Structure prediction request, 1187 residues.
Amino acid sequence: MKTILRVLFLWVILATMPNLLWGQASSRLVKLSGQVRDSISDKPIENAFVRINFGEGGTYTDTAGRFMIQLNASTFVVTIGKTGYRPFRDRLTLNDNAQISVRLIEVAKELEEVVISTQTVDANITRPLLGVTQMSIKTIKKLPAVMGEVDVLRSLQMMPGVTSVGEASNGVNIRGGTVDQNLILLDDAPIFNPTHLFGLFSVFPADALSSMELYKGTTPARYGGRAAAVLDISMTNPSLDKAKFQGGIGFVSNKFTADIPLVKDKMGILFTARGAFNDFLFQLGPERVRNIRANFGDVALKYFYRINPTNTLTASGYFNKDFFQTDLLGGINNINSVSTQYDYRTLNGTIKWFKTFNSKFDIQTVLVASNYTPRILLPEIDSDNTAVIRSSIRQRQLKSTFNYLPNASHKIEGGLSMTHYRLEPGELQPGTNTRTNPLNLPTENGVELAAHLEDEWRVSSALTVSLGLRYSYFMALGPWNIQQYDPNSIPSEATVTGSTTYTARQIVENYGGLEPRIGLRWAFSEQASIKAGYNLMRQYLQVISNTTTPLPTARWSMSNPYVRPQVSQLWSLGYFQNSRSNIYEFSVEGYYRSTTNVLDYRPGANFLLEPFIETQVLNGQSQAYGAELMVTKKRGELTGWANYTYSRVFNQTNQGSRFDEQVNNGNPYPANFDRPHNINLSLSFSESKYHSYSLIFTYSSGRPYTIPQGFVRFQNRTVPFYNERNQARIKDYHRLDFAWHIVGPNRKKRKWENSWTFTVYNLYGRNNQYSVFIKANAASFETFELTVFTTPIASLSYQFNF
Amino acid sequence: MNLSKKLLSLSFVAVFATACVDVFKADYDLNTNLLTVEGILTNQPTSTIRVRQSRSNRFSITSEAVQKCVVEVKAGDGTLIALRETAPGDYTTPLGFSPKQGESYQLRLQTPTGQRYESTAEVFRAVPEIAKVYDKFNAKGILDRKGIEVFSSSFDVFVDFQDTPRPRDLYFWTAKLYERQPICATCTGYFNAFTKQCVNVNIKGILIPDFDYKCDGACWEIISLSDINLLSDSYSNGQQIIGRPVARVPFYSEEGCLVEISQYNISEGAYRFFSIVREQSQTTGTLADVPPSPAFGNITNTNEPTDRLVGYFGVGGVKQVRHWINRTGYATQGKKISLLGRELLYEAQQRPSYIPFVEGEIRPPFAPCVNSSSRTPFKPQGWRN
Prediction:
């Protein structure tokens, strides 16, 4: 009941706002007259409505587009519109007779407000690709965000087929894929940990992004290395003619972006930085949180040089860092620490050389370096020593891609790439603590070679096919010490039968194969098409984690004799229909995915500093299927989308007959992120250039969890006994968010522009469960629920640019 | 990974005060009937293996002793050691048997129904002596079930010892607390001084209080401090282990108390089983819980792989020390809780009408301290007056 009252209160406030702001009329009569024309043709618009104060009075235009209305002298809101045109709305103060001239924009001809499909207005019909989502940064910025932090990954979850395990998820699950099965690229460099503060905010600097493409269906052959999906995010190219600056102050972080041309029309540089250093506020909180420290930041730099009309050089760098400290007495094994600190950082760099030979042929060569280094710091009790546990992933890649357009029917792309992976799986640095032995797990090296060729062939006006083929070949390289185990037993220390030592650069194991990427489109008309696709993708680097969502410090492993590459096949089929004016888009897509060599884990598995990871893992498989319905309104005063997804994902692990070689007795079970029903609704209402409102609603089935089937007593404790996996579900998840964007209300003529965003996250205070768990003690056991964001969270952020 | 999980648990509470943990009314459709086995073969004069039948359904959770089993331990050299049923479902090694360093031992069990089970072969390792045991007062030691407010202050007990030079020592600790117990009976009705038993009273429409009766002599409560505490020497092989927390004693009284620490060096199968049980019952409730798997343990049916037994058989050396905790002067620095977890309620001077009058009887009577696994009238060794 309280929730309903809260919602009602808010709606009352919103509904009465115009009257509160603009007041009532006085008694003196004045005339308001004017003419309404089309913004492009300049022709008068007949029969357009003219409304005063949302319907208190009004009239229609005549054949010459003219109107006249008599009013009491006062301040009014005038709305002028006609079906097919974006309405004009303004606040006028009339003390005397006045004339206005209004040009209305035809909705079909205006720029898309909501860009969540492809680049051209009807590209969703014409391209032979399924499951491609392009979401504009403008759209993302309009969505309500947690604490005002514009968030790419949370926005993506408003798309069909994209889910997560909950509020604190370190990544997203796309069409039944795990978090690490997504290739996330920022200017071609991979991002291994896409979130700050354990999943609360994503790491991408929204002010410096230009585009975001999500491939969850047909993935172009140029992408490889992950099994489920590709999220390709590009930073804006620096401006070459005009310096621009923007920044913002928010509840969580402050940010600044500078876009500076260095040499006009030749060279420019873009710099963006975001920092969250407001953790001193914890000191004002309850005692239990006063020693918490939680800072994060990211910095990106992009340099663009137009060497000549046919050659350009782009270099971009990206760095992010998280620091989190708690005074929770911690420690690992023999290290007793006063606090526990998490420090993880990403350092990426990309150099891209683009050469155009002629209008039909160009080559792009990219050099990428990516480093991710998570660390756990343990400052010891009664000592100035800090013990450190660290790991790292380094990826270096050289790739070259050509585009060739021989004629209007073919678009050919091909390329080669070589990627070197270097993993440091774990190192314990005890510092001056002589009671703990230093430990350094051997570094793992691997090389992935790939070649691809793809042709988008317009066979006829109705039929277009995309034929892509990628070949990838992976080599795990020495130095490496591979243990052999008794083939009749599960690998463990007790079943080791011998070992083989490989020297540096010696091939320890190799995997490889073809990866077809096929898309087909049949257009029934300019407004409707049907598409089909088939994809095969191989993944040679994967995260090793048995937790609900991988931690930022989760271990990664490359393929080796025991951890085999994941191979995923995806079949998809879709129907796409646009309205005649391309204002509305409708699509329905279905898919089926089958993935082999999916990892699960032995009961009680441990990965931290574990030298032989194969003793902890089990190989299994995964099946996912689903149907996605989506309607989008792309232009007009009211824009947005609605979608419904039905999707399932089941894992099966049955490596042997023993119980610790199986999960769920070897039977299929729902994955942790299996949420069958998902509904997302996003509405954005642009009242004027200066005010817009956004509302989003999301619903999804509760995710599965495992409940006990009985209880037993051991060591004087009553402990739950589990058998089947994920046979129950937490409560369904739903949430309503609201955002109000106010653009420069008093400074519209000045160069300095500013805007405010007021956001309420979880408007009706839904207590969404994150997990349900049991704690047992000597006497009994009790079941608890963990809920997050249980109350509406209001925030206000300020942005400026000049 | 426990460190990460602890951290995450706190991080959310910290970053967003809106996150919370609440009791959840779950309706479990329990339906299990499991044979359970528990036991560690140690260097103590005798070791006991407990065999139980655990049943769970919607209405009850029971554990019954499984009697008349044939239980034996097979040593790596082929020797068979027969265990004798010394109490219902408790099977004990013969006096004088002591496992040998480096030798493997395997449990063999045959139930009265003819089912045969065998454990994995577990290797015995001696355990180092505890070099030092000490305690520290912790004002915020034990938090409430939501992990937010202080439930009780505590006295945290730590040990120091020297790890052996061998890799893969797996330590496990248990702690037994001796507290002076002034109350020897609590009756929903009254205590009968002649039969030395409680008499339950049930009168419709009248709420019968629970009366506490003082002990007729000295009495000590024996409390198992039940957190599962494990340590592998994988990062500290051969090193001194300093300040290992082994017990957290609630602040029950300002009077001193005695705690007995048992330090084990357990075998692989038992360690793995305890790790799973700890993960599923003790370190849950984080943002990154591990989906639970069946904790079947290291004992399997030799004929029917689908018939699964839950439990463990471990071997390992054990060393015990007793440590006196002086709690005088801490009352103003922390929060105490009652040993019974509530205020005491003695039978009123004016006898309630439902207690029959007996000539010459002085009420309220005293209750005897009955010797059991959780209470003793005999002064524990190491107790200081």
